[in-house]
């Protein structure tokens, strides 16, 4: 999208030891100079966020947060805590959380509201299953998830949408370029309809088996304003190469 700085986000999921995470973050930071104009973000597991945050050159995010500001929620993490240790983003509604923790659109929306209240930028994930894609329902599924998951303050706060077809995550498979472009156009139309001019400038990331080899073609598609990268973000050289393609 013209005038929009691409965002290349690494989702490190539940990978890495303390030592591996420190070394990966260091390698990404060293490579960042080669990454060109794109903004680089990494989302480590909660215990390692503080290790990676606050050293410059790299934005840091959480992979989830709770909808409440604080309270009796054993094992959960508040958005303000993430902000406090140096995170500026939080991934919400990733398909693995929607599947593993039965997170509904409504739950994701409540979390996004908490993120906004804490001053974090939410990255809200949406995407169809393979069965939905095969049934020709990808577009209505995705726009329905947007309607249910995005809070009203989303655009004003510069929220990010990540389109991640569930069947493309970690599988090495991706939709065709026209299919990616079609969904991104539908997401843009949905954001513009709901949020007006503010929706035109929001970043829409593609996620699902992005690699150095396919990044350039995907990132060149209209309304693809960056990538959310899982597996390839665990290899610093690959992650930086994807950023350089943006
Ligand atoms: C993800 O889980 O956000 C993701 C895009 O994973 P991968 O790049 O490994 O498909």
UniProtKB/TrEMBL annotation:
Q: Which domain of life is it from?
A: Bacteria
One example of the protein's molecular function in GO is: triose-phosphate isomerase activity
Q: Name one GO biological process term.
A: glyceraldehyde-3-phosphate biosynthetic process
Enzyme class comes to isomerase
Report the principal subcellular site.
cytoplasm
| Keyword set, alphabetical order | Cytoplasm, Gluconeogenesis, Glycolysis, Isomerase
- Where does the protein end up? Cytoplasm
Which pathway does it serve?
A: Carbohydrate metabolism; erythritol degradation; Carbohydrate degradation; glycolysis; D-glyceraldehyde 3-phosphate from glycerone phosphate: step 1/1; Carbohydrate biosynthesis; gluconeogenesis
The active site annotation covers 94, 164
CDD domains in the record, alphabetically? TIM (cd00311)
Q: Which GO terms describe its cellular component?
A: cytosol
Instruction: Cite the EC number.
Output: 5.3.1.1
Query: Record-annotated residues binding substrate?
Result: 11-13, 170, 209, 230-231
Q: What family name appears in the similarity comment?
A: Belongs to the triosephosphate isomerase family.
What is said about its interaction partners and assembly? Homodimer.
Summarizing the function annotation, the protein's role is: Involved in the gluconeogenesis. Catalyzes stereospecifically the conversion of dihydroxyacetone phosphate (DHAP) to D-glyceraldehyde-3-phosphate (G3P).
Give the protein name, as stated in the record: Triosephosphate isomerase
- Which taxonomic lineage does the organism of this UniProt entry have? Bacteria, Pseudomonadati, Pseudomonadota, Alphaproteobacteria, Acetobacterales
Record gene name: tpiA
